[in-house]
Amino acid sequence: MNAAERPSHRAIPAHERLIVALDCAGPEDARQLVRTLGDAVGFYKVGLELFCRDGAFSLVRELRDAGHQVFLDLKLFDIPATVAAAVRNVRTHGARFVTVHASRRVLEAACAEQDDLGVLAVTVLTSFDAVDLQDLGYPPTVTAEDLVLQRAHTALAAGCAGVVASPLEARRIRAAVGDGLAIVTPGIRPAGTAGEDDQRRVATPRAAFEAGADYIVVGRPIRTAPDPRAAALAIQETIAAHF
Known about the structure:
Shape: globular
Strand order of the largest sheet: 1-2-3-4-5-6-7-8
Number of helices: 11
Number of strands: 8
Strand content: 15-25%
Number of domains: 1
CATH architecture: Alpha-Beta Barrel
Radius of gyration: 17 Å
Largest sheet: 8 strands, parallel, barrel
Distance between the termini: 27 Å
CATH superfamily: Aldolase class I
């Protein structure tokens, strides 16, 4: 399925715009969180932490069999042929999205294999700030927002389904690419939940959607809440009101 044939990300159900990050110690902890959230959540992210434990793909199949959408946040980064083969293998597990963190040639190789699986290009991690960019060799004149916009254009040209970017850059991305890319925004902190962690470029769910995000990824504000289900439902109410 090419980009023109995929269903528009602008028409997805509001309930599926919240993606909960299963950044748990192991599959059993993730299953417990899914049981706790129940029907409050229909879309889950499975990332590197779980994929470094046994049973990650079994968990993915369980989520899909239960009717959930799954986002595999693997940040694939290797030579084009290897990433293409990885995307081809990942595609068999029925996930909705997978992340790729690389150059245009790698993204093009990944997109050639995506079919029903949407490749999301990682732009700049939401934990990065100006100091991190300079550590990577970028001059002080290059801002995170500039780099995100450049990589969004590259993702569009490569045929990606979307990008992962901070909510602070969503507005510029949407203005630059229109509806050509889905915008998935981690770094979400509901009002009153901001705390000390490794995220730098953050925003509330409402601010992210007002800026043009299609999906928000929420982890700690739900996972560590006194009542995770109530926290998820509160975010779902915000989403329903916006859409």
